[in-house]
């Protein structure tokens, strides 16, 4: 991908947050942008690789793209935002970004299966979406998930996702991630 194409695609990602980042985050007390920026900050704080920081930032980009509305879960619909987001991002990034995004919903189902206390700590909105997303994994499903190449990164991302719902928390602006997004796009290109 050329530098000008990387710049244009980075601009398009930032523009999604500019247009839709102020939307509510599905039953939580933060916006889409606040959630994404908190997720990325948590990844950075834990020393995650640059590609995983970008995955944390963009893990819910599918919510910014789909047109189902903020109340989609209340209407009993699973928007499959993880699949929408992964498909969108696969044009731009390689598996180090795309797979944790694609797997962050199955990671919730996995964590509920292996950690009995995990479900109790989920927010009401996250518990509601869990049911729409297929519920807790069976032991066989959990084992199959654990054997996927990007499973551990998806679990890390999921844990940041769960914690990134703090109302009023100060974070860096989305624009401050432009350089990182572009660098990861260049170093982890789409297949």
TrEMBL record:
Gene3D superfamilies: Hypothetical protein af1432 (1.10.3210.10). This is Phosphohydrolase. InterPro entries: HD_domain, OP_Dioxygenase, Phosphonate_degrad-assoc. It comes from the Bacteria. Residues 34-104 form the HD domain.
